[in-house]
Amino acid sequence: MKYENIKKYENGRFYRITGVRKTTFEKMLEILYPAKASLTAKGGPKPKMCLEDMLLATLEYLRENRTYAHIAAGYGVSESTICRIIEWVSETLVNEGTYLLPDRKIRITKNG
C-alpha cells in the first residue's frame, strides 16, 4: 500500500493500517528527512521510492511480518531495494534514539 492511498485516512484507520498514529508517522519523517538529505548530497541514482513510502514499507515489514518479496511487489521495486530501504530506515530511527523498533536482532546504539 502506498502512502498516497492512506494519507487521507482519519487517525483511527491510519493507526489500524500502520500501527502508528499520524503524528508519530510525521515525527518519524522529521528524523528521516535530514538523514536522507545527507545521503543524496553525496550523489548517486535517484531513489525509486519517496520517503513516506520507505517508512510505510518498513512499518509493513515490522507490523505484518511480510516478506521482502511481497513488499517489493507492492511497491514495484526489487527485493534487494526493499531490504536496503528497511535496514536504512530502521537503523536511522533506532540510532536517533527516540524509537525502539520491535524484532531488532542487533541493537544499534546512538553512537554507532
Walk me through this protein's architecture:
The chain has 112 residues and is mainly alpha-helical. It has one domain: Cyclin A, domain 1 (Orthogonal Bundle). It has helices at 3-6, 11-18, 22-40, 51-64, 68-75, 79-96. Helix 5 (68-75) crosses helix 6 (79-96).
Write the layout of secondary structure elements.
Elements: H1 3-6, H2 11-18, H3 22-40, H4 51-64, H5 68-75, H6 79-96
Q: Write the element-wise H/E pattern from the N-terminal end onward.
A: HHHHHH
What value does the average pLDDT take? 84
Overall geometric form: globular
Identify low-pLDDT runs: 104-109
Share in β-strands: under 5%
What Rg, in angstroms, do the CA atoms define?
A: 14 Å
List keywords for this structure.
single chain, 112 residues, mainly alpha, Cyclin A, domain 1, 0% strand
A few lines on this structure:
Helices cover 63% and strands 0% of the residues.
